[in-house]
User: What shape does this take?
Amino acid sequence: MRNYLKYQLRSVEKMPTKIWPKAKEGSDHVARSIALAIRQRQQENQHIVLGLATGSSPIQVYRELVRLHKEEDLSFHNVITFNLDEYYPMDPGAIQSYVRFMNEHLFDHIDIPKENVHIPDGTLDMAEVEKYCQEYERKINSHGGIDIQLLGIGRTGHIGFNEPGSWENSETRMVRLDALTRRDAAKDFDREQDIPYRAITMGIKTIMNAKKIYLLGWGQHKAYILQKAIEGEITPNIPSTYLQKHPNVSVHLDTGAAELLTRFDAPWLIGICNWDEDLICKAVTWLSDRAGKPILKLTNEDYAEYGLSDLTIEQASSYDINIRMFNRLQHTITGWPGGKPNADDTTRPERRTPDSKRVIIFSPHPDDDVISMGGTFQRLVDQGHEVHVAYQTSGNIAVHDHHARLFLEFSLELINAKSKELVNTDYGKELSKMLRQVIQKNEKPKAAADTRLVKGLIRRGEARAGARLCGLPEKQIHFLDMPFYETGKTRKKPLGNEDINIIADLMRTIKPHQVYAAGDLADPHGTHATCLEAIFQAYELVKKEAWAQEAWLWLYRGAWHEWPVYEIEMAVPISPTELLKKRDAIFMHQSQKDRPPFPGNDSREFWQRAEDRNKDLANAYRRLGLAEYEAMEAFSRWKFPWQEAGKSVNHTHNSKSKPKPRAHSKS
Ligand code: F6R
Assistant: This one.
């Protein structure tokens, strides 16, 4: 992420905050700092007390600590740990238990003495809890208190499970989980009713007594609450704001999580800026929103009133800036996502040649293509491009058992109706066995793999139907079933060479002019981010091949976020009729209707989210003073430096070199 500030005149951040290009770099840094402290204590023959967190935030810290243990002789023999919290009630053997989490991610792989590990006990009787919590506090104190505390932050602003309303002097105790926290936890539980309502957690005071605190935040989905925690007033409504009072806290964020800090969101409010076209566009769209006026109506007074007089003094009059930015946004709008043949393409987002382009739409799950770019998908096909869609993962965990049962029963009844003898063949027996396994919820590895196979095939059928509705012939629909996804759990394997080669091979076969991919950075551990990483790495493999120079990468956003307007480079209008057709394509994904398993934290159905988002974007353009459309889909182009250098001479496209808050950006 570009730091736009020339001088920091006045800091609004109330905790020391370090921003890393990638979560891994920040996590490795924190792990190395912890390792250093452990080694120092070893030299002094002393123990060290670590306060540990679970969840996605510290996973890479633990991975790096395990690596340091295995490869660089880091011993944990002098380490004593206290975990922040545990669900209540919770069996330590359950897959959602924090005991199991800690064993899997850390304790099973290091030489920590078992008696040095402390995790709140989720199996106690209610009557025992209070005493147990007092004892937990006593134990922490008896070891001299926590030396280093690791923290993640929940979207409610909780630390540990200290939810909004927690008091500064709270100690280890039983708490009720916030509704939002329970919704976020849904990804780890099969059914909503299984998510515990309670937890045992260290208190704010317990955490604040730690000598050193690391607060970790990765991904855009944390940006909103982190801005409040770091820049907001201290309040029990956002318990992480208490950390502002800690004398030795440091916050570590990746660029996505830092996005809403004022230094990135509105840097002109805190210092003198290095203005470039992107920052000016960001400032002007921000100003238009704050002043409630379309761009062409903004005056010098508006710029001054909202802290942007620096821009009009240093750059140009408001009149010139307004026109420049209006035109820039105007040029992002095109009904020709594959380029308009025989038209001047100087200010168009895509090249006019070749008239008919080869296109690959990568879809992380089997429905992201139609949800996120269903309108553009149809236009590309209608405008005569050779469109291929590639479903990167099987999406098999997001199908209910009852759906698998329905299809297996159907298959059995079909063969029975055709010929009763078929039921007694090996094929019929196999189908009956698979049906039994689903009904009995058989979780043995082989049975679970059978069920996943059925679920994956259900999603294949739906994806095929959606793509067919958009006009694709069968041979242009590809199912990649990337292996990293196939764990049967929400936690996936790390990306491997096999995954990357699958993508590179398809690209080599098709030699696309355009590649569309989900550019989601909202969840750095999520499937979308891994699928995108696979595409980046595949590009690395093919970049020397001539066709790769021409293979422009366009990023769309998944179901959750839209690009901010100033980052959009291509906005494709969707007419009311196209929007209805897009809805029909989303409807093909029957297994995802009416609350699929792991639905995320938005209760709207996918077609509703997609339509709201596409209409919101059209409204945002309208409010800025551009034409009024029914709906719009948006894309941002990823520019590889090697691609820019080798740009074909007969393309007159006016390529913007755009710094982006992303690690792979060329700037
Ligand atoms: C976990 C804990 C929680 C998490 C927080 C963020 O022990 O106490 O406060 O740190 O909910 O969770 P993730 O990291 O999964 O986003």
About this structure: The domain at 24-263 is CATH 3.40.50.1360 (Rossmann fold). Residues 646-667 have pLDDT under 50 and may be disordered. DSSP finds 24 helices and 19 strands in the chain.
